[in-house]
Amino acid sequence: MKALKFVDFFRDIHGYPPLPWQARLAAQLVRDHEWPDLIDLPTASGKTACLDIALFHSAYCAERGEAWRAARRIVLAVDRRIIVDSAADRAEKLRKSLTRPRTATLNRIARALKSLGGSEPLLCEKLRGGMPREQAFSLDPAQPMIITSTVDQVGSRLLFRGYGVSPYSYPIHAGLLGHDTLLLVDEAHLSAPFLDTLDAIRARQLQAERPLNSVRPVRVVPLSATVRAGGVPFRLDAKDLANKTLAERRSAKKPARLVEASGRSADRVSVLAHEALHLYRRLDSAAPKIAVIVNRVRTARALYDALLKQNLADRFDLQLMIGRCRPLDRDEVTKHVESRVGVDVKDANDRGLIVVATQTIEVGADLDFQGLVTECAALDALRQRFGRLDRLGKFRKAQAVIVGDGGGAEDDPIYGAALREAWSWLSSVGKKIGGFAVVDFSIQSVERLTKGMDLGQLNTKPGLQLSLTPIHIDLLSQTSPTPMFDPDVQALLHGLRSGAPDVHVVWRADLPVASGGSLLDVSELDAAAALLELNPPTSLEVLSLPLRDVRAWLQGRADETGLTDIEGVPEIEAVNGVESKRRFVLRRSGNRWERASARDIKPGDTIVAPSTYGGCDSFGFAPEFTKAVVDLSSRAREELKRSKIVSITERWLAAIGVDIEQRRSIWGMLQKALGSQASSRELFALLMEEISSFITFDLKWLSNQPVLDVVRNAAGKLHAIVATDAVVCAGDLSDEDFSSSYTVPVSLQEHNAGVARHARRLAKKLSLEAEHVKHLTCAGSFHDVGKAEPRTQEVLRSGAPEALPGQLLAKGKRRSGVGRVEFSERHEAYSVAFLRQYPELLKAVADPDLVLYLIGTHHGRGRALMPDRSDDGSAFAVEVAGRTLPFEGAPALGSLGAGWAARFWRLNRRYGPWGIAYLESVLRLADWKCSAEEAKSKRA
């Protein structure tokens, strides 16, 4: 069979041949199977094609039976909040082309990728800030994937502290990203601290006593210019420079007028608005598309409002883009802008467009504008912004304006002295035309102007860096419980002057709000917490914000917010003002929700605010916005493939069209029934009789016997009836709490055998060593044996006492109030104790210590200490290979003398922190996969 050719693959996907450098890099990769140390290419060179090249390499190796030479997971990370993620769009194009291949080459590529063991040739994922029980990107470690994300999200996961991720899931993300992964760091010169941290991670991985030889450690490839010397770079050569496509992009003139404005915010906004409108009129285009890029979210909103007030809607469309927005809102805005100014769009729209944006479109945005107005910034940031102007070099008549204030006397909070130095340099090299200094920002021109220069003073300076030491790694690898001293992950990713981790904010419409508008008096906490336990926050409805801005907003000082859209920027100012409001939110603390004021909130917290607080519109964070925020929880659950859930409150009745008189009547009737001790099912039946005419197609599932919970307020009155679809969906499955045991009744014997089968199959697909295949199979066979404990069996049977009579259960039927039951020692501890009593069950494996550890940590606990719970012990019996084996006693693994912590450190040294996490992940994901199949087959 003839070898696969990258040129054929690329042409079949995109309809045109690759650029010379793209074909050259692909040929080099399939020959040497090694990536360059640095891919140093200017903007608009087509760097996102590295995704195509990496995927081709993976398929090429898989077809030759050398899958281990390439990575299953291809990750592209950028040190920006990605608003228009062209890499994600490109990945999706690859996925669709391979799902239904149209040519012989694509068919071969698809078959080769599918042979790696995934359910599809390729899956794509935008890795966002996660939430408890959200594991979409990591469900199958054998699945070829392209993942796009930010440095914060990828870096924090690699360091066992995934932002917004449940601590019990930390090791899964770290283990998978730490192995069998190619990490492409785009605009790497912005990410020097992150690159140094990655070097330290790789060095530690190589120090393991028994490394996982069949899966390679993470491979890191910086893209674009870098602050670091050394290594072998990959650059454009003479053939590339002679290429017509690249020559057009490099030579397209981009004349930029320098316009000076005062440092006052109002004056700056006025000048920006004037220049945007002036440029719109001057451009030689029937319907020009202009970007106005500014350095602050506040400036962007003020400018958008100023242009909106001029009532120019009959002349052009106006769009606001900021990175500080919820993912579902972001997707809507992105879709609209890409449909108008994406590089592949043949826009027949006769209306012009002005997009007001922050730094969020500097990087990773494959947009093509004819005009650009930008605030002055450091030179490296300006070069990125001009990469969105006449990006393909086809227009040839682009114009731009750079607005500055003479550099200012003080360092800029974002760009430091570089902004002042850049403005001074631009003024010195600009040619005087019509009374203004004009600088050509074409790629060729800037290269010529900066040739031989030391650009250190003009570019953004990296902050002081914190080195990742072995002590840091030992602390970070402890995920449950986390140690008292926890290393500063933000500093490891962005340097010592970076800001604190963001706070994750969610808005919900069903929370009880006091008459004065402040959430909850203390007595309402239980009702609010119950609602969030039943319907936990998800990443798609989260808005990540700096701590100082969240505090200022909650305290009624919206004018003190000073957001940028750059990751890891230090907080601009301290908050010293007096509170004009005192509004409470709900804050997740450990395993419970607590009431918190602005001053109680800490970096990295997830908080939930009532929709009535305002603070967020369809564009993103809007501290002055006072209308109710749209609750996105239902849409988020649908996209995440979770079962439907609805909190039926008086406010919800209003939303579906029930008038105020009917609402009062219905709620009074329900309250009366509740007072008469009516069951939740009876209450729901009464409600459905009253609102049947308001039930839309989307709510028809309410007629199919949903699972019901009743939430009362502090006075014991009805606050909400929470209805959950009884059908379990893939996104509902998790292993982080007891709710994962409620799907459909499954016997303990069947489930243990199923997980063992899945673990064995998955380990073989990943080409793990034969001894690890045995370890994982054995761990799967006994992982849930501790559920035979009588108290656990009683809880599992509570939803369906008649299920599988005479058999021990591993899973019970879904019922009301799941996830809120905690008692005695956990079943993992009982499983370990059972095997320690019968060591002969582990004779066939090379490392019994590893099997015990994998079983004990298969729900994310026990790293490095097991939960210490009071338990007098229990007695039960389990049938194993035709023998009935009794157990009596208490595990006591939480005591310091139990030796569990010593086992954790032994195995960390033996396999390395990321290696042991990877093995844990394989077992845990086999468990999830088995549970999903059980739920699906039993339902059918």
From TrEMBL:
Keywords: Antiviral defense, ATP-binding, Helicase, Hydrolase, Metal-binding, Nucleotide-binding. PROSITE patterns: HD_CAS3 (PS51643). Coiled coil: none annotated. InterPro entries: Cas3-like_dom, CRISPR-assoc_Cas3_HD, CRISPR-assoc_Cas3_HD_sf, HD_domain, Helicase_Cas3_CRISPR-ass_Anaes, P-loop_NTPase. Residues 741-929 form the HD Cas3-type domain. In the N-terminal section; belongs to the CRISPR-associated nuclease Cas3-HD family. This is Type I-U CRISPR-associated helicase/endonuclease Cas3. It comes from Steroidobacter flavus. The gene is cas3u.
